[in-house]
Amino acid sequence: MFDVVIGLGQAGSRIASCFQKVFKIRAYYLNFxxxxxxxxxxxxxxxxxxxxxxxxxxxxxxxxxxSNKDKISEFVLSAVEKKKYIAICVGGxxxxxxxxxEMILSMLIREKxxxxxxxxxxEKKEKLPAKPNALRILNNIIEKxxxxxxxxxxxxxxxxxxxxxxxxxxxxxxxxxxxPKAFKRFWNISNLSAQHNYIDFAEGYNSLDENELKxxxxxxxxxxxxxxxxxxxxxxxxxxxxxxxxxxxxSLFIGSFDINTSKIAVVVVALPEELKGEKGTNDFVERxxxxxxxxxxxxxxxxxxxxxxxxxNITINILxxxxxxxxxxxxxxxxxxxxxxxxxxxxxxxxxxxxGV
Length: 357
Ligand SMILES: Nc1nc2c(ncn2[C@@H]2O[C@H](COP(=O)(O)OP(=O)(O)OP(=O)(O)O)[C@@H](O)[C@H]2O)c(=O)[nH]1
Ligand SMILES: [Mg+2]
Prior knowledge:
It contains 13 helices and eleven strands.
């Protein structure tokens, strides 16, 4: 799905290395701190400019980036040469990754690349001013790139997602692995012979191939969300409103993006083999497609389903693209504004108004 992945700063590099592993694509890592690379095992090329990091200061990071523009540019341009689909990962709130991100996005856009940005938001417990800084940089990215429809963005709210996928090991290990795997679920279907494979808007196509999926991902830029719902094998008996509820609350990364503002939806229903030929299965899958289609109101919906021997549950995978508004994002921002400790940053955060995105 992606031709190349680029990781910026420590978080970005760790997430990028997971993409590299899952998709077996080339990875490139950039950092301003040698220490971030010391235990880092990610496979791929590295560029270290400066040293010592930024101590969580993206504004200092921007200065470092500006004074090393040539080196960064040479590295990034060689990474993306002859490649079209680029994933770029960065941890919001840090100084190195956030210091470089705007410069690098501008470069990639100039080169007419298709970009998916993975941007994490800090947890509440992190030291100030991680969150306001993360939101400020996000605000810049929204104003310059997202609102212009130039970048597809997946926001990962660590507060929500790092806890949801917590493992015994390293704090972010679970979520870092989940991010590329969530994409992989859509990627996989292009290799499977699907059962109910159809695409609503483009008559003549009867399967969702890799290029279609890429188009879907990049077609309507904005924010993207992925939902994965696991249903018992007896789910065919569920009422529509119960299914809706499951879908509403199944967001992987940000809590609850407003599903009804998406412009594109890719729906992949994976069914246990034992349901094959079972009375009601086909009707149930059709019902799911209708329910999700109505929930998203998206003008473009790709529907697909397949059977898998390894499955015990029914799994609905939904990729929502072009989300323009989000209650959960607005509430995140409002929380930050309310926090009295953030007083000095207040003016900047208030600027972050997503209603026009
Ligand atoms: N999902 C995820 N988030 C992370 C990970 N590591 C750090 N973060 C988050 O990313 C934010 C940025 O941290 P870093 O990536 O360490 O910062 P940096 O870009 O290296 O910049 P410096 O401040 O100069 O070290 C943190 O505030 C955390 O919220 C990770 O492995 N996965
Ligand atoms: Mg660092």
